[in-house]
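$ run holo --ligand "zinc ion" --emit C-alpha cells
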Amino acid sequence: MTLRLGLPPRGRAFLFIHVVTAAGLLWAQPTLPALAWAAVQYFVCMFGVTAGLHRYFAHRSFKTSRAFQLVLAILGQLSAQRSVIWWAGHHRHHHRYSDRPEDVHSPIQRGIFYAHMGWLLTDAAEVDRHNVSDLERIPELRFLHRWRLLPATILGVTSWLLLDWSGLFWGFFLALVATWHATFTINSLAHVFGTQRFDTGDTSRNNLWLALLTLGEGWHNNHHRYMRSVRQGFAPWEIDISYGILRVLAWLGLVWELREPPTEVMELARRG
Ligand SMILES: [Zn+2]
Ligand SMILES: [Zn+2]
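-- output --
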C-alpha cells in the first residue's frame, strides 16, 4: 500500500527533517560542545538569513564586493531555506502584496499556521522567478540555486565529523530547525503580535522578542515602512544585532553604502 500525503516532494522532505531531528534528539546524547556548536550555528545562520538573504539579496539595502556577496549567499544557504533566488523571489512578492489575497504567507488571509509553515507544504512555495532577474544574472547564484542544499550538507557533514552523532543532531539539526522556525515567526507572528508605529496598510508589527530571536527582524512594521533601509530598529532601544554587525563590517571595508531611513523618521522613532 502506498502512503499518499498529498504534499509536493519538498513539502514531504521538510516534514521528514522534523521527524529525523526529533528522533535524533531522543537517540543521541546532548553534550556541551554539541550545544555550543548549535548556538554558534544558529547565530551565524540567522545572520546569513537577515543580513544576506533578506537585507542584501531581497532588498539591496547595502553594497559589497562580488567576493563578499558570495560569502553572504553561502551563509544565507547554510540554513537550507532553499536558495537566494527562491528566498528573494518570495520575499519581494510578500512586500508587493502584503496581506492581500496574493500574499502567500499572510496570517490574516489564511491563518497563523499557514503563514508560518503551511504554505511551504504546498505548490505556493515553488520558485517565484519573475522578480529576481537581477539575481539570476549572477552565475554563482544560479549555481547555488541548482545545488541549493550543498552549503547545508557540508555543514551537516562537518558537524558529524567534528562532534559525532551528538554534533549532528544536538548541533546541526537542532540549530537548523530552530533557524527555520525563528525565520518563519516573521511571516506569522510579526504580522499579528506587537505594535504599529507606521500605517503601512498591512498588519506588520514591531516586536522586541521577535527582534531578539531573529537578530533584529522583529521590527517588522519599521521594515514594511522602509524596506530598503539596512536597519530595522529605528529607535535607540530597538535592538538590531544584524545592523550592528553590518556596521562593523562597514568599518572593516567589507560592505558599504548602507541605506538609512530619512532623518525625520529616525527623529520620530526617537520621540517614541
Ligand atoms: Zn511582512
Ligand atoms: Zn523584507
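-- notes --
The chain has a mean pLDDT of 93.
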